[in-house]
């Protein structure tokens, strides 16, 4: 620290014990409009943050009021032009307020009861505020000397989350950007462990041998990130065997058994079984104990993708659905889904810390061995990332504020809303429910008078609701062999209820709104 960076001390302005640190503007003097000073751009957030946060809160309120619904009633072209215009026009200290208003106006707002398409939750105020503290302090979890308390806090939080999943004290884990990264990690550790056992060579050092054809077994309804992880890991997407599912989109354990035996017969090592606990579309939970038994029998790693369904662990009512998750070698959990955290709040857990071995790295500038021996812990070897935000903090604050019980009540409220929505669909003559909700989501569709137009009308009615700014409803397609029902067709609409403050009446209104949009679409109204 050079003295030229220090402002002259102002007599009496500081408490005698306060450390008068440097107030360094991140922009050269004169670069900001007169009057801005080094306020908004100060690198000491404490000084300017309160005023900036007021601008943000005002911008959020103004933008939401201008939007007046779950999504702006504009075409993508009109919205793109508005964004470009506002960016071009905005300069200086009004940028934060104006662009926040633009962002809020142009948001698909998960806090609106009619925004119910995706696993996209309205974050808790306490979690957003905790995340602000993290942004202000900017700890980085790749070395203790960038994050002393945050390092310990993440370690303790992971122990708590491992306990919630039923893991023993040998568990370890890390915060991730989400299920996608967690799935890559689970499959990477599986690849390294299983293939080293099969080939005697450490894959992380030598790479893959062309002689082996490793296989990953995941249900046909597993998340697409499983295939992409296989591609990334050098196994190729074709290494993923799609195991058939039942009508509720749960993996068929008899089919898994057959697929594993078939691979064994061909000499293809089974690297991993991926069981999904809460599929993205229907919340279906694969039979975890059966998957665990079959994985163990064939020497495969069991990875449970509980990115969505992991939230059930918070609820006494729904936790039994996840019985067997504790048998997994690794688990993906997403607290930015059923956990009401701002993204990112992914969690990756392994049952046994030693299975992390292939990811461990020694970087002289981050975690020298003598520092670790002297008691300075390092989380570097836990993550694929180097610089890493303290995403554990907001989860720790949330768990302390609401407790598991408080969060469980939010999960149950969303489960109740999904059941109310499904009942409203069943009661409507022009709507067809696919299956009862397992967690907080369900699939359904509008039945046009001409069944041959079902896919086209359902796809179009969803865009109509978006265009009119009335609702954000999900859309997906069923696997071909489960698209039975009146007149065939694979397109289904989806409601994912993640806002515990929504009421059953609001969900019923949303269901009727979908039916009206279907009627308008069928009638060819523009
Ligand atoms: C959401 C989801 C993912 C992907 O998680 P991200 O947090 O979006 O990366 C993976 N698997 C399942 C089952 C999911 O629902």
UniProtKB/TrEMBL annotation:
<keyword id="KW-0032">Aminotransferase</keyword>
<dbReference type="GO" id="GO:0030170">
    <property type="term" value="F:pyridoxal phosphate binding"/>
</dbReference>
<keyword id="KW-0663">Pyridoxal phosphate</keyword>
<dbReference type="InterPro" id="IPR015424">
    <property type="entry name" value="PyrdxlP-dep_Trfase"/>
</dbReference>
<keyword id="KW-0808">Transferase</keyword>
<dbReference type="Pfam" id="PF00282">
    <property type="entry name" value="Pyridoxal_deC"/>
</dbReference>
<feature type="modified residue" description="N6-(pyridoxal phosphate)lysine">
    <location>
        <position position="337"/>
    </location>
</feature>
<dbReference type="InterPro" id="IPR015421">
    <property type="entry name" value="PyrdxlP-dep_Trfase_major"/>
</dbReference>
<dbReference type="GO" id="GO:0005737">
    <property type="term" value="C:cytoplasm"/>
</dbReference>
<dbReference type="GO" id="GO:0019752">
    <property type="term" value="P:carboxylic acid metabolic process"/>
</dbReference>
<keyword id="KW-0456">Lyase</keyword>
<dbReference type="GO" id="GO:0004058">
    <property type="term" value="F:aromatic-L-amino-acid decarboxylase activity"/>
</dbReference>
<dbReference type="GO" id="GO:0008483">
    <property type="term" value="F:transaminase activity"/>
</dbReference>
<keyword id="KW-0210">Decarboxylase</keyword>
<feature type="region of interest" description="Disordered">
    <location>
        <begin position="1"/>
        <end position="31"/>
    </location>
</feature>
<protein>
    <submittedName>
        <fullName>Aspartate aminotransferase family protein</fullName>
    </submittedName>
</protein>
<dbReference type="InterPro" id="IPR002129">
    <property type="entry name" value="PyrdxlP-dep_de-COase"/>
</dbReference>
<dbReference type="InterPro" id="IPR015422">
    <property type="entry name" value="PyrdxlP-dep_Trfase_small"/>
</dbReference>
<comment type="similarity">
    <text>Belongs to the group II decarboxylase family.</text>
</comment>
